[in-house]
Specification:
The complex is a heterodimer.
Chain A (H helix, E strand, L loop, with lengths): L1 H25 L28 E7 L6 E3 L7 H16 L1 E3 L6 H4 L4 E10 L1 H8 L13 E9 L5 E7 L6 E7 L3 H11 L6 E5 L13 E5 L4 E3 L2 E4 L3 E2 L2 E2 L1 H8 L10 E5 L2 E5 L3 E6 L3 E6 L11 H14 L6 E9 L3 E10 L2 E5 L1 H7 L5 E6 L2 E8 L2 E4 L5 E3 L3 H14 L13 E10 L4 E10 L2 E6 L2
Parallel strand pairs in A: 20-25
Antiparallel strand pairs in A: 1-2, 1-4, 3-7, 4-5, 5-6, 6-7, 8-9, 10-24, 11-23, 11-26, 12-13, 14-15, 15-16, 16-17, 17-22, 18-19, 19-20, 19-21, 21-22, 25-26, 26-27
Helix pairs in contact in A: 2-5
Chain B lengths: L1 H25 L8 E4 L7 E4 L3 E7 L5 E9 L8 E10 L5 E7 L3 E11 L2 E11 L2 H11 L6
Parallel strand pairs in B: 2-8
Antiparallel strand pairs in B: 1-3, 3-6, 4-5, 4-7, 7-8
């Protein structure tokens, strides 16, 4: 008897499901007919607001001259959760402080955390990402690319949080008084570990006016420092032979019903498609997806909504093995493109010029949105891993690298004078450059007046 | 008259030569654009730190040879008791900046920064007293009142 009732319930359930699915097929515009799954359906399951993927790095000051920079393993990191909570707590329960600039001397006198973003973000979007009320920062006109969190554990305890821009140094600070959470933040700072060999120094703290704004520059003890090179691997190759079966398995995640996808091969390009989605794989190792699902009405078009949609798509691509972060974006009236780069061993992996030319890509991952909806998704299919079997060394400091770049600019006929034009260096960092030979070595990236120059580290 | 004029000429020559020699001895011109931008405070008599090292940064004209010497100063403050701990050398390039991370010993350290560019010479120095890091922990714990963390 009980079995019959159960059977009847199951049958009724499937009948209702069939009616619903049929009605979706009949009534266009009544959502799409991918009832169970669509790769391009964005989700509101966004536990951290996607905030973390926008972070380039976290800088930690433990109260001495040597700063720690963390790029990897900051997703779901316990200390980072504490820092995020401190921001929310301070913004929701604190009050505006009078300081309107980053005073780096003061910030680095005691323990502090600095969030560095790869792009400037409007403050309404940033407040949504953190989860505090928009109006708290709405009237702050500077776009934020730096957040500072400072716990003060001398009585009266307080937490200071500053949002600002590293180029202009303008900032807006909030503080919460008599907060015991300051001790939690203080301890969380102490628990962060950095590289044994490389530490960072703040250009502003060293009075180096050559740099625009405040830049965190890598340093090490002694004449050189060792590091592991990075190898890249195309996951669709095995023993140097292309394995189509591996490609097919990888592209299945982009289809709601992978068994019904169509396959073709033309001019070296594999093409997989169904009625809504087209996936192409190019011999240069690029996966490219196009979305033709019916446009939803009312798709929000502010930066935060678009960014959330972009990250939703990325999170669904289970083939991505390496950590990534938002390194740039472009926006016009028609489309927005978000650029993401990979990071490993606490350094960014950048595409070398040959790879850029061969792939037509500026960054390892590009997500294009039209009218707020993801229409195209491109990704370099490579996976990266640290080659611990050998070590390379960095023997050239940032000053030598800058001197070489300035000499190169001068020898090119440009009259560049350090004295006449202060604040010409916009960046000086170590990055992995991915070349054709699939091994990435560290190089110096020196940005002079908006132009990047790459110099070897030896 | 001729003898008098000769004597005066010789006297004037000696004075002039002596003046030039005195000027030459007292020296040298300062190295252009030389200055310390971070790491030591030249205004204070001495600084105190718990850090085991200091990043000394500064500026100087291109091709300046910069030398940073760290001495350990004996506790009895006898200036003759200077023990050289470390010496760092660098040549300033087009950027006109220099930066060195220098180690400090526990106690009093005398940091001397010398800059030489041809005939030009500049020198500055500062004292940095390094205290043991255990004292910092004790001080911090001492601030916390009973009943609080």
């Amino acid at each position: 008897m009980r079995l019959n009732i159960t059977k009847n319930f199951i049958i009724a359930f499937f009948v209702i499901l069939a009616v619903y699915q049929t009605s979706e097929l009949w009534f266009e515009g009544f959502s799409n007919h991918n009832f169970f799954y669509s790769f391009f359906n964005t989700s509101n399951d966004f536990d951290d607001g996607g905030l973390v993927y926008s972070l380039d790095s976290i800088i930690i000051n433990k109260g001495n001259d040597r700063l720690i920079r963390v790029k990897n393993d900051i997703y779901k990191n316990e200390s980072k959760n504490v820092f995020d909570n401190a921001v929310k707590l301070t913004m929701e329960n604190g009050s505006v402080s009078p300081a309107d600039k980053f005073n780096w001397d003061e910030i680095f006198q005691a323990r502090a955390v600095v969030y560095r973003y790869g792009v400037e973000i409007d403050n309404v979007s940033l407040s949504k990402m953190f989860g505090f009320r928009e109006e708290l920062l709405k009237d702050f006109s500077e776009r934020t690319d730096t957040v500072v969190i400072m716990p003060v554990t001398t009585i009266p305890e307080r937490i200071l949080v500053g949002f600002g821009n590293r180029k202009t140094n303008a900032a807006r600070f909030y503080s919460i008084e008599k907060s015991n959470y300051a001790y939690t933040v203080y301890d969380a700072i102490g628990s962060v570990q950095g590289s044994k060999d490389i530490y960072y120094t703040a250009s502003v703290k060293n009075g180096l006016n050559l740099f625009k704004g405040n830049i965190f520059i890598p340093q090490w003890n002694g004449s050189k420092s060792n590091y592991y090179p990075v190898k890249s691997e195309n996951p669709f190759f095995e023993d140097d032979e292309f394995q189509q079966i591996k490609l097919e398995r990888a592209v299945d995640v982009f289809f709601d019903n992978s068994a019904s996808k169509w396959t073709s091969f033309s001019n070296g390009v594999f093409i997989y498609s169904d009625e809504n989605t087209v996936v192409k794989y190019y011999p240069a190792g690029v996966l490219e997806l196009y979305n033709y699902t019916a446009e939803k009405n009312g798709e929000e078009k502010d930066f935060y909504s678009k960014y959330k949609n972009a990250v939703s798509v990325l999170k669904k691509d289970s083939n991505i093995k390496n950590e990534y972060f938002l390194s740039g974006y472009t926006e016009d009236s028609e489309k927005t493109i978000f650029y993401f780069d990979y990071k490993i061993n606490d350094f960014t992996i950048r595409l070398g010029e040959n790879i850029k030319k061969n792939t037509g890509m500026r960054s390892a991952i590009e997500v294009t949105l039209n009218d707020g909806r993801v229409s195209k998704y491109r990704r370099l299919a490579y996976e990266f891993y640290s080659d611990d079997s050998k070590t390379e060394s960095i023997e050239k400091g940032f000053i030598s690298a800058i001197n070489e770049v300035l000499a190169e600019i001068q020898s090119g006929g440009e009259n560049i004078s350090v004295s006449d034009s202060n604040e010409i260096i916009e960046n000086a960092e170590l990055i992995y450059i991915l070349d054709d030979n699939e091994e990435a070595l560290l190089s110096w990236l020196i940005n002079v007046d908006g132009t990047d120059y790459i110099r070897p580290v030896q | 008259m001729k003898k008098l004029l000769s004597f005066i000429s010789v006297l004037l020559f000696i004075i002039a030569t002596s003046t030039i020699c005195v000027l030459a001895a007292s020296g040298s011109q300062d190295v252009e654009k030389f200055g310390i931008t971070g790491g030591i405070n030249l205004q204070k008599g001495a600084e105190t730190t718990f850090d085991s090292s200091r990043i000394i940064s500064g500026t100087a004209e291109k091709d300046t040879e910069v030398e940073i010497i760290v001495y350990r100063v004996a506790d009895d403050a006898d200036e003759a008791n200077l023990i050289e701990l470390d010496r760092y050398k660098t040549t300033v390039g087009l950027s006109e900046i220099f930066l060195e991370d220098v180690d400090l010993s526990i106690g009093k350290n005398l940091i001397v920064v010398k800059a030489v560019n041809g005939e030009k010479y500049s020198e500055v120095s500062a004292v940095v007293k390094r205290k043991k890091s255990e004292i910092k922990i004790e001080l911090r714990q001492g601030i916390i009142l009973p009943g609080q963390r």
